[in-house]
Amino acid sequence: MLLKSWISSFSRSLKYYCSNLENYSLADDDNNDQRDGRNNDLEGNIHHSSILFERLISEFETNGQNVNIENESTRLLNQHAISDLEDAKDYRSLVSLGKSTVTQTMFNAVNVLVGIAILALPYAFKCSGWIIGISTFFFCLISTNYTAKILKKCLDTDPECLTYADLAYLAYGQKGKIFIGFIFLMDLYNAAVALMILVGDSLKILFPQMDLTHLKLISFLVITPITWLPINYLSYTSLLGIFTAASLALVLLIDGLTKFDAPGSLWQPMNTHLLPPSWMVLPLSFGLINSAFSGHAVFPSLYRDMAKPLYYKKTVNSSYLITGIIYFTVAVCGYLMFGSETMQEITQSIMSTQGYSLFLNSVVVWLIVINPLAKFPLTLTPINLSIEVATLVSFLIVGTAIVFPTFDRAMSLLGSCFSFLISSIFPILCHLKMFGTIWTFLPSELLGDG
């Protein structure tokens, strides 16, 4: 029951996140029947597992309205942007029932923050050196923690603002919403490409005799049918993210402490640098580190789903503390163990080094293979694709991953461009538009009427 409760909490947050992009669906009108079929599957699951669905139906019935329950509930539960809920008498019931506890919200936030970027953090420190690497790490951690709290202040101006897209509309109108929708789409596409590159690289570690392109094509054949599944099945894979990241950090520590000679030992670290060995790759380091803290698209949904929203800031702080510890452990240990020989994915360095437990490291690599396989469909879910278009998009993503096969470049682009806009720039711009100042940390009495 406890596990079901936590999964239900994450599933609710994921559905609110998906509503950010429903107005930017890539599905053709001719494929509406197939999409409706998938939505009906989702509706059926919600009917059996959530009191939210029951209370919503009950509200329509007790008010004596003649409503087609199946069609109306599907529309409300799958298209609950503010503009689509004006016909319901109390659409805020969608976010007032079945809410998450503080612990569940913290779990969801950590699950959103901890991602595949963890694999590239030791390489980011290699590119930047200790001084700039650690400084950039804490700058990204503190600044994105700060902007996550700014989102709460902006959301509090209108209790009917439910999602990141709604916030964009509230601050900058329809143009702002379209712009954020475009950034979301680019962010999701780039993230999906990075996931596919990671799957291919990880399988190459496990099966070095096979061609990398063939492995990616096999991954396409395995992943694509999973993208056809309803979201309620995919939400059960949400636990993999945290479990994989924690396992990687633990195995890295075990490897480093059980090996006593370089390379790959914490007892005898490799040569490292205080400053970047090449200043030309410094921007790459910033993108890699910033991509690790890119969960802001989901934070409005997490906030609205909290049973005790007054604890939001403390929850954000706790989530960032846990995430920061996991990330910093992997980044520092990985760079100490492999130094200038650190590869773009720390698993590549681990598996290519003699003296470790092959079984333990293989288990972690398999977890890293399975994790993208689970997250890839979740990444495409907000775009609301039909089966045919989902297959086509998956093929395009695999093609992009084959043409541009470097994981560090994909993650750096994700962090320095799309994630930086969503996680750092846009929350401050929203605050500027709503409150007339970027000095969000100053007390309101010092800011005057503006």
Helix-strand pattern: HHHHHHHHHHHHHHHHHHH
- Give me the CATH superfamily of the largest domain: Amino acid/polyamine transporter I
Distance between the termini: 49 Å
The average pLDDT is 76
Q: Overview of this structure, please?
A:
- 69% of the residues lie in helices and 0% in strands.
- It has helices at residues 2-18, 32-49, 51-62, 69-78, 93-96, 102-113, 121-155, 164-206, 212-226, 231-234, 239-258, 282-290, 299-304, 312-338, 346-351, 358-380, 387-403, 407-435, 444-447.
- The termini are far apart.
- The protein has two domains: 15-96, no CATH class; 102-447, Up-down Bundle (Amino acid/polyamine transporter I).
- Residues 23-97 and 445-450 have low confidence and may be disordered.
- Helix 6 (102-113) runs parallel beside helix 14.
- The longest helix has 43 residues, at 164-206.
- It has 19 helices and no strands.
- The chain has 450 residues and is an all-alpha fold.
- It is globular, with a radius of gyration of 22 Å.
Q: Secondary-structure map with pairings?
A:
Layout (H helix, E strand, L loop, with lengths): L1 H17 L13 H18 L1 H12 L6 H10 L14 H4 L5 H12 L7 H35 L8 H43 L5 H15 L4 H4 L4 H20 L23 H9 L8 H6 L7 H27 L7 H6 L6 H23 L6 H17 L3 H29 L8 H4 L3
